[in-house]
Amino acid sequence: MSIDILEMSGHLALGSRLKRLAERMQADAGRAHAAMGFPMQPSQFSLLSALDRFGPMTVSEAVDRLNASQPGVTRIHNSLKALGLTRLDGVPGDKRSKRISLTPEGQKLVTSMKHNIWPYIDAAAADICAGPDGDVLSLVARMEEALDAQSLEDRVMARRQEMNPGGLTIVPYEDALAADFADITKEWVEDMFTLEPEDLAIIEHPRERILDRGGRILFVATEDLGIIGTCALMRVEGDSFELTKMGVRAAARGRRAGEFLLERTLAEARTMPMAELFLLTNRKCEAAIHLYEKAGFEHDASILERSAGRYGRADVAMSYPAARLKRA
Amino acid sequence: MSIDILEMSGHLALGSRLKRLAERMQADAGRAHAAMGFPMQPSQFSLLSALDRFGPMTVSEAVDRLNASQPGVTRIHNSLKALGLTRLDGVPGDKRSKRISLTPEGQKLVTSMKHNIWPYIDAAAADICAGPDGDVLSLVARMEEALDAQSLEDRVMARRQEMNPGGLTIVPYEDALAADFADITKEWVEDMFTLEPEDLAIIEHPRERILDRGGRILFVATEDLGIIGTCALMRVEGDSFELTKMGVRAAARGRRAGEFLLERTLAEARTMPMAELFLLTNRKCEAAIHLYEKAGFEHDASILERSAGRYGRADVAMSYPAARLKRA
DNA sequence: ACACGTTATATAACATGTTATGTTAGGGGG
DNA sequence: CCCCCTAACATAACATGTTATATAACGTGT
Q: pTM for the whole thing?
């Protein structure tokens, strides 16, 4: 088996992955039944087992017992009924309800499976679940409880509020935003330095100079002000990239947008095939240098020599540790 | 939420349960995306994420990367293609392969989701997974590995071989087996005692005297000899049951069939609404009494008084601890 | 070079879970 | 007493995973 993207994506694709695992176990359980002469679908086990244990029950009761959806129970029942294993009768006193019960054939089959297969399946499944990581059943139960207590959707919203209270949004580059890229860059460069030829080349042709060479440009925006900042990852040569043109409009300072943008730009870098990431700046940019240091960049004067002449204003160089470029 | 049958069925229905949990998480993830303005299907995330991280790849490469089935990948891709997010191009040099790549719109969307939603979903999912039971991701990974190493189906067969080396089978009662029930009982009763009126009533009308009153009759069979033993659970009154008519043909001794049958009969009892389980026997039946003791029955002379007159031969009474009647 | 097995992808069919909604029966309030 | 909301079940539609199989292109061995 090759590299498994899901394994690398952390919890994002956990749903998909769990589902595949579950489907695999169900299919195997079905095959085991077939191999021992019981041509049943795995989905039918739980209803059969419940009927055996609790006796006849209405559809609604089965829904509660199985903790499944009502149409799901109805469907399972229909398949069992078609096999002649269950029956559906009216309930005296409430013509809406119908009671599911095992036919004699159904009872016979359940009893047989209960003694001749299920113990072995249970043992085999326990086998797979066994390990140093705790009991799967209790873990699944806990996850179900957690979801009951607060849905994943609610948790996502809560986490967003908590991790990003300012409501900042990352906006990927598109040509319509070229003007913002240029404006924001001009604003801070002209405020402290003067635009150099390299600056002009980049802000006038961002697609050619950055994107088409495998680089990325991100923007940060707020609900009220729109695009307020930008940052680029530019390929210098090979797998070596420069973090450049990071800037936030003066009118939007104080919203921690720079910190947020830098963090997300580094996250972006981690998903790119990148061996080295460095930046060039000037010692006058104290606030920016502080951000870089906080994000993990380290001063590295050797880069200055390699990059001599790129920018007249460059007198500080920093690099991001290669180890941190590897995805968590 | 009421009693959850799956929670009680141990590992048997783990597949079903895992699947429901997974479906719930996926649906929630989808809703979270919709709520934040990204109308995507959760199944599409993994392919989008893989394309973003690894760049264009053929269908086969995606199958490896996502660890999913090829038709699954094709379907996900088709849905993305329909949204204009991906493209499928031929691969020069091999006209069989086709390469999936992100369109500019697709790249833009992925970048946006990667920074504006996925971190929060990941955090929320990690939240649900967090707990004292260990890390869910590593647990799932371990289960996947275990299944890779040996399928559940193979494990089931191995467990059966190991837990039941004699190849004994439990056969539920049906009227066609009434003669076996009577023969086996006559064989041992007449060998050591004489048939009493109560014996005759039961073996001549097992359905009326046992099954119709909520009791059960089990048989044990082997491949070569067919039905070789039987055992019944008979309702005496209310929730009080008697274990009775347990016997194995003399011709089939030495296969541990009695032990197996008794164990499974007790398992059967645990799935019945039963408050008390006792048995009556005679001190001459030393082997049987030894089995009963080994299975957990305890001597209880008080039962003899309550049951006075039922059987002339009864001079030993035993009861099964009520606590052990509760399902594990 | 051709026949035939293998590989890459597409398609069909199925399994199994879900929501959404229709239909009929109960039940309570004006 | 009737109207209308609710409850119980059925049905339809969809989501998403699977297997099985068709089709076309590769490639190998005689």
A: 0.86
